[in-house]
């Protein structure tokens, strides 16, 4: 119609075209102006030393975040454009190190006991007196007072604590305070009396009642099997169901607090946990770490179908509470001499450990669950246990074809040299805990000798063979603090910083690598490497700012490093100064 008109009246055509050109040019100016309008961020972090773990863009100074996501990573100048004055929250990192949030690939997470006296990292023993006093003030006479995680080597005087430290403040209550390793305990005189432990009591087999060298009196420290002598004579506390659930809720809040203060923004629970409890935490705005929750491995298809229903409710695409992997045990532990080995133990040649399942039953379960598409994670400590699980995973590929299954071996602790390359060949993830190495190395060599120990915690060999490690802690077996894991990975020395080069130093990692496996590696193990584990545009804004430069400080400073900020899903969930 319009073109008909223009055709009939050429004059009109020229005038119209001129007007149209003019209008179009104005429109173009308006359009281009709106296109260059800078996108604004909700949160900007400036002035940092950003270790991105992104190999294409390894370092940066600043980060822009919008909603849950990182929208830009770059120089201070480029990111300052994202600041909307008065609206964008700006964190000045003051030149400090910024890394992706820690992702603990193996935890046993759950509610803490709100009355437990936490003594980890105590350096001044008088703090113990104060904390026990405060807890007793809230308790009834006769009620059991429990706490622990103290480590006398961290005390300024490095002396074992004694009952005198707590007796004055606890005349009417039994007090039990465990050492960090759980192998010794400090008790008060109230407990010694009720247990009938005196100067005359002989040391039990495999245990020691520590005694004052001058008087011979028990000091209050009971080691190993001497702990079995304890009778607390505690008054039983009865609680209503409501009181119990309040305590559990408080316990969850405490556990969440611990995780965010340590910069752990993702948790992968090894095995089952209460999905609904975490949903409640999320609804109430208290879920400050993402969590994967699994189920025990089974070959029963009815149960597996039920798991599938749960998985639909907590899908892999979700970022907060997700269905994880199916867990089973193939053997025991090195500490208790139950790891399944090819050859007998050096310190006990009558045994080569214990299998938790016979091979065929374990294989059957794995094959059934693999066929239904589940991810599987099996605990394996001994070299034979690891070999078995690798064989079984190999069978899944033979029978069901190669898929991106990312089956895991939890701990992957002692490996035969010939099994090391099989992890990457089969796409099996070694899910490992660096602190186990520095806690267990004391007895590992005694149990299995130095030749077999070469394949223990063999991080470097696995990486060289092409594996992507996933790092974690096995909390609460070990502390949740990632700084201990980083320290262990780069030193392979005990926590006191013993002399020398570390235990099998050729397996040590560089700090950047240790951080990578604690972030991107763990994300890969849960199929999340395209959303988590790097500080990169489009990734979830799970970010940690630490108070020391882990990349340059002396090794002795690593475990003293603290978190300044924890950001999860774009929100500041912990700030040390606030
Ligand atoms: Zn575990």
Question: What this model shows, in words?
Answer:
- By secondary structure, the protein is an alpha/beta fold.
- The protein has 16 helices and 24 strands.
- The strands form 4 sheets. An 8-stranded parallel sheet has the order 8-15-16-17-18-19-20-21. Strands 3-2-7-22-23-24 form a 6-stranded mixed sheet, with helices on one face.
- A hairpin with a 2-residue loop joins strand 23 (563-568) and strand 24.
- The longest helix has 26 residues, at 10-35.
- 43% of the residues are buried.
- The model is unreliable at 1-7 (pLDDT under 50).
- Zinc ion binds next to loops.
Lay out the secondary structure.
Layout: H1 2-8, H2 10-35, E1 43-46, E2 49-51, E3 59-60, E4 62-66, E5 69-74, H3 76-80, E6 89-92, E7 97-100, E8 102-107, E9 117-118, H4 126-137, E10 145-150, H5 164-167, E11 175-179, E12 184-187, H6 189-195, E13 207-211, E14 218-224, H7 241-261, E15 264-269, H8 275-283, E16 290-296, H9 301-313, E17 321-329, H10 359-371, E18 376-379, H11 383-400, E19 408-410, H12 420-426, E20 429-432, H13 434-453, H14 459-464, E21 470-471, H15 482-491, H16 511-525, E22 543-546, E23 563-568, E24 571-575
Parallel strand pairs: 1-6, 2-7, 8-15, 9-10, 10-11, 15-16, 16-17, 17-18, 18-19, 19-20, 20-21
Antiparallel strand pairs: 1-4, 2-3, 4-5, 7-22, 11-12, 12-14, 13-14, 22-23, 23-24
């Amino acid at each position: 119609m319009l073109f008909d008109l223009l055709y009939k009246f050429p004059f009109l055509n020229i005038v119209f075209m001129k007007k149209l050109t003019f209008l179009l040019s104005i429109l173009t100016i308006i359009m281009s102006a709106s296109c260059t309008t800078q996108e604004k961020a909700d949160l900007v972090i400036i002035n940092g030393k950003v270790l991105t773990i992104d190999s294409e863009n390894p370092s940066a100074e600043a980060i822009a975040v919008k909603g849950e996501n990182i929208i830009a990573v770059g120089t201070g100048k480029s990111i300052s454009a994202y600041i909307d004055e008065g609206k964008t929250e700006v964190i000045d990192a003051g030149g400090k190190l910024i890394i992706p949030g820690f992702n603990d690939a193996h935890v046993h997470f759950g509610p803490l006991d709100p009355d437990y006296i936490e003594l980890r990292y105590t350096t001044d023993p008088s703090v113990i007196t104060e904390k026990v006093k405060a807890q007793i003030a809230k308790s009834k006479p006769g009620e059991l007072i429990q706490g622990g995680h103290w480590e006398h080597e961290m005390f300024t005087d490095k002396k074992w604590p004694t009952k005198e430290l707590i007796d004055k403040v606890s005349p009417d209550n039994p007090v039990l305070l465990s050492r960090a390793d759980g192998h010794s305990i400090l008790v008060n005189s109230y407990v010694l009396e009720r247990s009938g432990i005196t100067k005359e009591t002989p040391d039990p087999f495999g245990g020691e009642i520590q005694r004052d060298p001058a008087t011979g009196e028990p000091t209050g420290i009971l080691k190993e099997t001497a702990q079995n002598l304890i009778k607390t004579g505690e008054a039983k506390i009865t609680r209503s169901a409501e009181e119990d659930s309040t305590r559990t809720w408080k316990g969850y809040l405490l556990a969440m607090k611990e995780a965010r203060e340590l910069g752990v923004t993702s948790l992968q629970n090894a095995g089952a946990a209460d999905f609904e409890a975490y949903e409640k935490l999320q609804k109430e705005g208290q879920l400050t770490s993402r969590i994967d929750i699994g189920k025990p491995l089974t070959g029963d298809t009815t149960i597996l179908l039920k798991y599938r229903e749960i998985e639909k409710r907590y899908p892999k695409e979700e970022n907060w509470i997700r269905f994880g992997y199916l867990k089973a045990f193939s053997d025991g532990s090195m500490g208790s001499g139950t790891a399944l080995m090819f050859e007998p133990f050096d310190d006990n040649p009558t045994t080569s450990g214990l299998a938790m399942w016979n091979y065929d039953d374990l294989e059957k379960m794995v094959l059934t669950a693999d066929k239904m598409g589940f991810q599987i994670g099996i605990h394996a400590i001994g070299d034979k246990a690891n070999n078995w699980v690798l064989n079984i995973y190999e069978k899944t590929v033979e029978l069901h074809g190669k898929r991106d299954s990312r089956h895991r071996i939890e701990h992957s602790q002692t490996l035969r040299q010939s099994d090391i390359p099989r992890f990457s060949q089969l796409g099996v993830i070694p899910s490992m805990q660096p602190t186990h190495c520095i806690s267990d190395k004391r007895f590992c060599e005694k149990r299995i000798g130095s030749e077999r120990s070469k394949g223990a915690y063999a991080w470097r060999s696995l990486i060289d063979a092409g594996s992507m490690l996933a790092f974690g802690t096995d909390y609460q077996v070990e502390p949740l603090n990632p700084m201990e894991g980083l320290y262990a990975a780069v030193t392979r020395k005990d926590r006191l910083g013993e002399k020398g080069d570390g235990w099998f130093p050729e397996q040590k990692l560089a700090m950047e690598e240790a951080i990578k496996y604690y972030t991107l590696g763990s994300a890969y193990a849960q199929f999340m490497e395209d959303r988590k584990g790097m500080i990169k545009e489009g990734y979830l804004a799970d970010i940690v700012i630490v108070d020391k430069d882990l990349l340059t400080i002396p090794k002795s400073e690593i475990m003293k490093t603290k978190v300044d900020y924890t950001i999860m899903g774009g929100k500041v969930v912990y700030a040390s100064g606030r």
